Amino acid sequence: MDLAGLTVVLRAALSPIPDERKAAEESLNQFQYTPLHMVRLLQIVVDGTCDMGVRQVASIHFKNFVAKNWSPDEPGEAQKVLETDKSMVRENILGFVAQVPPLLRAQLGECIKTIIQADYPEKWPSLLHWIKCNLLSQDQQVLGALYVLRVLARKYEFKSDEERIPLYAVVEETFPLLLNVFNKLVQIVNPTIEVADLIKLICKIFWSSIYLEIPRQLFDPNVFGAWMALFLNILERPVPLEGQPSDPDVKKSWTWWKVKKWTIHILNRLYTRFGDLKLQKPESKAFAQMFQKNYAGRILGCYLQLLNAIRIGEYLPDRVTNLILQYLSSSISKTSMYQLLQPQLDIILFEIVFPLMCFNDNDQKLWSEDPHEYVRKGYDIIEDLYSPRTASMDFVSELVRKRGKGNFQKFIHFIVDIFTRYNEASVEFKPYRQKDGALLAIGTLCDKLKQTEPYKSELERMLVQHVLPEFTSPIGHLRAKAAWVAGQYAHINFSDQNNFRRVFHCVVSGLRDPELPVRVDSVFALRSFVEACKDLNEIRPILPQLLDEFFKLMNEVENEDLVFTLETIVDKFGEEMAPYAFGLCQNLAAAFWRCLDASESDDEADDAGALAAVGCLRAISTILESVSGLPHLFVQVEPTLLPIMRKMLTTDGQDVFEEVLEIVSYMTFYSPTISLEMWSLWPLIMDALGDWAIDFFDNILVPLDNYISRSTSHYLTCKDPDYQQSLWNTLSTIMSDRNIDDADMEPAPKLIEVVFQNCKGQVDHWVEPYLRITIERLRQAERSYLKCLLMLVIADALYYNSSLTLGILHKLGVATEVFNLWFQMLLEVKKSGMRANFKREHDKKVCCLGLTSLLGLPADQLPGEAFERVFKATLELLVSYKEQVAEAKKQDDAEVDDDMDGIEDDDEVEEESDKEMGDDAEDGDEADSLKLQKLAAEARGFQSNDEDDDSDDDYSDDEEFQSPIDEVDPFIFFIDTVQAVQASDPARFQNLTRTLDFHYQALASGVAQHAEQRRVEIEKEKLEKAATQ
Description:
Number of strands: 0
Helix content: over 70%
Radius of gyration: 36 Å
Number of helices: 52
Shape: globular
Structural class: mainly alpha
């Protein structure tokens, strides 16, 4: 398609007639891979004579095409774009960056980013030369050079070590030129907004270049000093008044304020890296000393000057305020910086920081006009990162933590004074907003106040006098703040339980408040009161009402904290939630669908809805767990939960896959039977596992185990779909894939175990295929835990059918290899003397059952020498298993004793904490820094004591794991098998006993005695169980 034809098609793509638009899209897709198509799209984008709408459509198609096709997704995948076309694009795209309008520049910028990621430096060596040449030009091309250099620097922003090396050349070649351009721009009198755009780009380039590591060129004091002089110039000079928007929402995005923000970003980053000498590497110590001596204090002075705008009622963007307060908070622990802060500390604390903590005009506007947005912002972690209020709270917390001496008492007196003035003032003159800030301060400092006398003994009185009355305040934000503060102090020891009750009931009443933010804060506080409540009878009578208010609120807002509180209630009441379980699940399912619909309809939606959706699923799991002893409830809730499980087990549910699998696990484990509707989820799980869900294999293992172990007959008999074939297809694919790590592979042999243990005698035709892939993977496995799991498959196969399994091993020609490896693994020990393999009780038991099964084979299948070797190995393993079981029981008993005897008096703990929280030394950071250094040294020097790198966590027994072999006692099984051999082949048995030395005879005798003891114990357990039923 030639240029003219392409222009016509692109214009048709803008047509209001759907058929014309569709035909144009089809035409573009049809011709997208023809030679020069990409080049012609670029020609149209940069053609100033062409209609702007057409250019815009061309730019979007060009950007999408480059993103999708410039470099193949997979290694070895064929190139879809000719190298000649790529070369033409690389040669021409840069020159137009500065010439096209900003809207098109953004699209070209995305393309350049894609090309740089793929091609620089190897395939685009001329890029750096082009940037240098254009940095030297005097026209608009400087903008293009800065724009492209920003994209290039950003490629290396988070790169480290070898990946970062190309950046050094970029800095070496461009930074001297960049500094020159920066210098000229700063000297311009009455600079335009275009100058601000250029300075902002320079700041962003510098930021990307220093974020992870300072380039060595900047370690030269003269070079660094030249840059710092310019940054400090930008920091100190006032933002131009001319052209500044009046609307605060527009003003914060105005380029000159953005320049200020990026400058502060850079200076904060340098301070983070070089503000503490104790954390420096030897090679950067001198630079850090220079930075501290020459710049850290001067930056602080500039920041305090900027913050003064807040005192005198002038404008300062929230993000700038936040970043400056972060710098101040970091300075508190550093003695030299704190000394600079100290003379102005009262002004900072009481005239800048505290006013920022108070409810303000913007809060009131949002509260009145959009309470939903007020709630969202209040509970949004991302908003906290940019909030001056959060930064102020952090400053106060850091000040009383690191420099509590004098400051803590002074600040509390200030707060108490506000409380007093508020109480004494008449209604029309009460300082409502200051009271709000004072309550926020009290809530922020709750940990410190709870641990420090004389304050901790006054907390109950403080709640009654200064918080409780605000629950009935005519001012909505004070009612909300009262609920929040009450939640912070719900766990204190109330000397009068009536006070706990009064505050608790006020919080409950807040659930019905006419103002949405009050209701949400009340729910948040309720969670703490439910956790702290010692007598559930306080809550029990109002539980239905509470749940009702909950779901009214869930219909109004998507808030994760609502779900957290619900989970806490469900946890606390357990099976008492049974009457409400069905209604709860229905409401949570409805809330989940609402959250999902909201996020699907708005691609730009924030994460609150997604978090709330995850919370709904987690709450459903909590409810299912709480009523796990009531199987009939699972039948009731299944129709409500099935649509969620069906949808979210596909790629639609990747973000909530773990939570959905947990629900599937509960439904397949606790339901009286697994319904056909639940079985319909099996193919979805298998498709996901085979396609994209290998990272969730551990989670998938649980429901698959449930399907096979709890509905074995259906697993074995159903042919449409054929579940046995489906499992084989997936497991054989995974186990033969060399790209899958050993750790990700571990659930596969566990699933084969499930099949062999649950389908004993019914899957003979699967024994050989599963053994074949197991042995193939065993030869490749490097991780010892995977080797153990694979060997357990062989042990399980022997227990399943020893004659069949041994015959298959001989047929495959691997019998000697397998048994030699197995015995070698059984004998292997660590330096500590502990077994290196088969560490779990389960592992030892399965090995015992597999080896014992071999002993039952006739002499022609297991000759004398092999018989003796297996017999001895089994005896050793049984003794080891017995010791491990006894040790585990001993530890369990000890834990029970600890739970009974180890309850410390709360006051003692608090008094001890009080001592630890005593007045700080002037060098409050010294101990912290030493701790950090010590931890860093330990981390660097940490080495495993054992030869293998497998964590012992891999070997802990899963208490929830259940299998048919739980009913099999390995000692009884061993003795019964040996006695059967003695009865069927006395001569063979006599030959064995003759060759055994005293050690093994003693072991055999001990095992026989323990087997008889176990028979008695098992019989006793059966009788006790029968008596309780």
